[in-house]
Amino acid sequence: MSESASSEHDSHHNLVVGNKKLLMWLFLGSDCMFFGTLISTHLIYRKLYPEEYDPTQLFSLELTSFSTFILLMSSFLMALAVSAMHKGELKSFRRNTLGVIFFGLIFLGCQVFEFSEFVHLGLTLQSGTFGSTFYLMTGTHGCHVAIGVFWLTCLLFYSYSGKMDAHESAIDVEAAGLYWHFVDIVWILIFTAVYLIEFIGKTGGAAH
Amino acid sequence: MKNIYHGILNSFATVVSLGILLMVTGCDLNTRMSTFKPKGPVAQEQLDLFMLTVWVTLGIFIAVGGTYLYVVIRFRERPNDTRPLPKQGHGNPLIEIGLIGISILLLVIIAVPTLKGIWYTQTTPNEPASRLGNWYTGEGLSEGEDENILTIKVFGYQWWWAFEYPQLGITTANEMVIPAGKAVHLELRSVDVIHSFWLPRIAGKVDLIPGRTNSMWIQAGNSFDRWQKERQDSIDSINATTAYETYLRDEIDGYYYGQCAEYCGDSHARMLFRASVVSDQGFADWVADHKEGNPTTPEGDNWNDWYATYDKDPDLLVGELNEGIKLFVGKAQCNSCHAINGNPRAAGVGGPDLTNLAQRLSLAAGWLNHHNEDGSIDESKQLENLTKWIHDPNSVKPGNLMWIARDGRGIGQLPQEDQLTIEESRKISLFLQTLK
Amino acid sequence: MSSTVTATPTTQSEHPVVLSPERSKLGLLRPDHGKSVIIDWLTTVDHKKIGIMYGAIALFFLLVGGLEALIIRTQLAVPENDLISAQRYNQLFTMHGTTMIFLAVMPLNAAFFNFLVPLQIGARDVAFPRINSFSLWAFVAGALVINFGWILQALEAMGLFSASGPTEGMNDFVPAMGWFGYAPITGIKFTGAGTDFWIMGLQILGIASLTAAMNFTVTIVNMRAPGMKMMRMPVFTWMTLVTSLLIVFAFPAITVALGELMFDRLFGTNFFVTAGGGQPILWQHLFWIFGHPEVYILVLPAMGIISEVLPTFAKKPLFGYPIVVFSGAVIGFLGFAVWSHHMFTTGLGKVATAAFSLLTMAIAVPTGVKIFNWVGTLWGGRVRFSPPMIFALGFVWMFMMGGFSGIMHSSAPADAQQQDSYFVIAHFHYVAIGGIFLAVVSGIYFWLPKMIGKMWKGNLSTWVAIFSTVGLNVTFFPMHFLGLLGMPRRTHTYLEGFGWETYNLVCTIGAYILAFGILLLVVDIIRCFRSGEPAGNDPWDARTLEWKTTSPPQVYNFGKTPIIHARDALWEDKYGPENRKCGEQAEDGHGIHMPSQSWWPLLASAGFIPLGLGLSLMQAGVPFMGYFAIFGLCLCTVGIALWAIEGPGGYHLHPKKDA
Question: Is residue A2 part of a domain?
Fold first, then answer.
């Protein structure tokens, strides 16, 4: 979508940040507020009704830590893909992007598994405020990951069309990379503020 | 140039129209819900702060507006203006910083009293004079409440009000009764959507928000002590009883109008309420009267006997009043939502409490009124209002639950062939008129 | 326009040829250079055409919103009036607010942003021309969705439609819960499908605003002509930048709030449902975190317009330009910190009330600074009472009055009496009509000759000014008193005997005077379109860059990109010393690169209509609407995908030397 700018319009070479990248930064700024609102809604209700739900009975730290680690690693691969694209190494770009997509899919798989587990254990969208805020927040994040996977898949296919050039497409890949890193950072926030924080002071917790 | 005249005309049109409006509006500020005629410390504090902001902004208005008019007139383009271009000055930092400084100073003038006002109006006082033990002489005060001031729980419904007096164990609807010159603590809750409690002459509004309890305090008029102190000289000559009566007449107007101030659905405009302010003794009497309710039928019989007859053979109960009661507990099922103290089968909780309904000066949450100028009740108007309200509640207050109730017991949900006739509505009304 | 230029497709050619459509990467013909005017406007990426469309649609909705207001005022003319039902009244005031804010003022501002910002900074177009087109059509889609309920309501009134499904038994198809939509009245228990139309419509409008805002931020930051430093930008462009950033950071709050509300209604979540533990107060916080910046989103562009008009007609630079810019930014920043002053009566607690009270007073300072600077601009100048100036002068006066009642609100205890009364209505209509509307009219008188190349005829503008300012004051000044005499807002009628009758009647008369003024404005605009008198490049002897080019500007704006050496670029070019005059960038021999037109932004935003309508109608129990919504979502996705694949394209123009 961000390809709209005609190349001529991007030709102010003295720019600090190019049009597409600046647009992506603005979108991410906006998205920050978006996730900020979602996470605060969750935390506010959590603080308001501390006894409503005991998530430590629900969360499986092993699984979520694993998926967090996977997402972190995907970010690392994403960085490699961007740098490969800048160097014009199409093969390396494809390999790394495929890795990102694969890891992204694992993360999504974990989330689907986690959600279905939770529903079995009785936590649904309708269960009090905890269910509502938890699913909307993590679900929105999941959607972001899914969109990212879709986007990267498109770029991967596009790289086989032979129309990719090192200069113009590198910016597109970089924009996708910014998005991916952002989604990753948001997850680390969610993991900390929503999952880990629940286990503070709970010895053992739901480790089993 | 013709345009100069246009521009000036434009400015003057504004000024003149404002002037005319001021004259028009300069008339009567002493109206039923006027915030300009406050009674009691809360509304007084709010008015004082408002007037402070008015004077400060008026000062700024005259200074800035005056300068503005002067500039526009003084520096206008003249016909055939051949002067050189104005100096292209870019501003003067000293003037600007000075003006910012003055603005901040002016705001401080408002800010300090505002902070005081916030704490004053939002902290319920617990002064000895207002404590129940020191003035409440009636019955039924709960244990341990002597040291507390009167508390009223206000519940907002679409579109009426319930007023519960937890310390006294009574509940009324739409017309609250409060003692003169005593601080009263209000707890505000809503059962459906957001409402807002506004009794303009006594206090500004506080919202009733579902899921939380808000609170505020009100006081109708200054306390008797303070009123006496302020009139030390003039009341020396009169005795205490006369003084209290004078106080009630002069300081306490007696009857106040309020309204829901937060949009709450279809009939938001028809969600009014009243506050009746009475003497200490009057309050005790009212509580006693309300607790007792209507322990006998209009004809003076025991309710249990009446219901025994009703269950055996309702046809034995004849006469318009009895017909009315039969409809009330029978076909119209009024008692499934409404309560009347003393009447064993009228104990519903979904709708407004009807105890002593006929004593109230209004109906349908203040929308239908039936009192004379002097505060007495116009009984024929009352009957007319009751009949209208019962017969066609949906046109009086669209969307209300007396017509279509969620549990299916609304009057409008009666089978088509079984709808209340106007005559039946009148009979119920006649019965309700006996509730005093 | 192609009559004055010759051009070639992307490959440069020695010989000028007539432009013809080229194929995109999809292999489809691009809609450029077609014969059909309709296709040209539907697929245009030209910021000037998009701006004009924004303006035209916004003026239409301004009239719709005005008509709604007139019905409201007529209903209130006398006590216990039954001209319209309570429900209809509630729908009218809800739609009046929603329409005026989201469908009239915001797009009017967008119209000025679009038309002016690239011209003022010496750019060829916005940074993302196709996103710009997408924003416009998404706005139209949102407007249609939000107003669709009127059709259902008409059908319902004729007995042809009634709701089933989740909202069975509810017959409100036009939103009736106020533009602020306070939970829980927006819940499925209390309101019908009208609320769903409102949620979906606002969500779509939010997307339109967000994309437009990001686009303008990038444009202003990146697309400025050489030498157009930030502190040389016209103030209107500055205010556009601040407004855009406000949109970028404020809209997510309402997006999330609307999303949560939608989940509550569609999927039974408990964000605002008290029975499930939800706190309706949360909605108010989220809404006003968006809603207060929104107030500045509406008013800052108006301030920008005034900051352009006053210096032009006083023949002096803006007094204290850096402070005006800085105060605009401070207003934007503080705008995020005062939201709870809309909630003084909700039981915030003393400390929060005090803090928000003080912050609200603080925001009066930068606002006051602007007034001082405008007066300072006129001081020592030569004030010419041309039509734009009349309105600008009226703006300063009326906006000042609206500001004063704002200061009165900032004192929380005093506000307890004013909140939700007619006093508040008086306050924000002084700001909205006396401020924003007069500024926008001033802007129309100022820039319409630039937009269409024709000059105003006659002096109807004077009458517009007289009727609208007199009407405004007659309508809204008495409302201060109405509020203080205890009349609450949003009441469809009132009892006799509360001392409100005279005021209400006067207000209603005023509303008709104001309406007549607006009618005259429409007549004058039509007369301007029919005027034969050419405007020329610079009819007002103005100061900024947009007046340097032709009226109307060529599709490429500037034949040669100007090089800027000073603030007030055109003024310096005309009257300044040699070293401050504009330069011109040398031609690079490739001609002017123009973006290609495209169908896909239109298609992508058209997808919002079935998406929004589908989800709302589903709530009203219309069958198969879920599939309709999915169809809409597919349409969006397909549109965006094709848009990405087709490539930006573009072609080169070679303006003749005389252009």
Answer: no
The string of pLDDT tens digits covering residues B45-72 is: 999 999 999 999 999 999 999 999 999 9
- State which residues of chain A have pLDDT below 50: 1-13, 204-208
Match 């200069």 to its residue by tokens: A167
Asked if the bond preceding C184 is cis, omega within 30° of 0, the reply is yes
Touching check for C327 and chain B: CB below 8 Å? no
The CATH topology of domain B293-432 is Cytochrome Bc1 Complex; Chain D, domain 2 (1.10.760)
Which of B284, B218, B258, B299 is closest to B44 using CA atoms? B218
- What DSSP string runs through A140-202? HHHHHHHHHHHHHHHHHHHHTTT---HHHHHHHHHHHHHHHHHHHHHHHHHIIIIIGGGGTT-
pLDDT band at B26 (very low <50, low <70, confident <90, very high): low
Residue range of the domain that includes A165? 18-199
The structural domain count of chain A equals 1
Could you tell me if residue A205 is inside a domain?
no
Q: Which B residues in the span 26-65 are in contact with C, Cβ-Cβ below 8 Å?
A: 27-29, 31-36, 43, 45-47, 49-50, 52-54, 56-57, 60-61, 64-65
Q: What token pair was written down for C87?
A: 């429900």
Assess contact for B214 and C346: CB atoms under 8 A.
yes
Q: Alpha-carbon distance C323 to B8, whole Å?
A: 29
Q: What residues of chain C lie within 8 A of the CB of A154, using their CB?
A: 641, 644
* Residue B327 contacts residue B427 (beta carbons within 8 Å): yes
Rounded distance, CA C68 to CA C58, Å? 15
Enter the tokens of residue C61. 């909705």
> How far is the alpha carbon of A137 from chain C, nearest alpha carbon, in Å?
10
The token duo for A171 is 């910016």
In the structure encoding, which two tokens stand for residue C45, read together? 């990426």
Residues 29-88 of A with CB under 8 A from C: 29-31, 33-34, 36-38, 41, 44-45, 48-49, 52
Alpha-carbon torsion angle A80, A81, A85, A87, nearest 10:
20
Contact A41 C256 (CB under 8 A): yes
Tokens of B37: 């005629």
Q: Residue C559: its pLDDT value, please?
A: 87
State residue A207's pLDDT score. 43
For residue A13, is it within any domain?
no
| B198 vs B210: CA distance, rounded Å | 17
CATH class name, domain B130-288:
mainly beta
Residue A49 domain-assigned (yes or no): yes
Predicted confidence at residue C13, as pLDDT, reads 41
pLDDT digits (tens, 9 = 90+) for B326-362: 999 988 989 999 999 999 999 888 899 999 999 999 9
Q: Which of A23, A131, A163 sits opposite C128 (nearest CB)?
A: A23
d(CA A24, CA C270): 33
pLDDT greater than 60 at residue B9:
no
What phi and psi, each to the nearest 5 degrees, are found at residue B317?
-90, 105
Q: Do C473 and B18 touch (CB under 8 A)?
A: yes
DSSP letters along C97-138, please?
Answer: HHIIIIIIIHHHHHHHHHHHHHHHTT-SS-S-HHHHHHHHHH
Distance, in Å, from the CA atom of C144 to the CA atom of C142, rounded to the nearest integer, reads: 5
Length of chain A (residues): 208
Distant-in-sequence, close-in-space partners of B199: CB < 8 Å, separation ≥ 6: B218, B256, B257, B258, B273, B275
The two tokens of residue C568 are 């007030």
Among C656, C654, C649, residue whose Cα is nearest residue C21: C649
* Domains in chain C: boundaries: 385-409+416-530
DSSP states of C281-302 as a string?
Answer: HHHHHHHHHHHHHHHHHHHHHH
The segments of chain C whose pLDDT lies below 70 read 1-18, 656-659
Query: Across the strands, what pairs with B153?
Result: B164, B187
Task: Report how far apart the first and last C-alpha atoms of chain B are (Å, whole number).
Answer: 77
Cross-chain residue pair C222–A31, CB shorter than 8 Å: no
Mean pLDDT, residues B262-271 taken together: 94
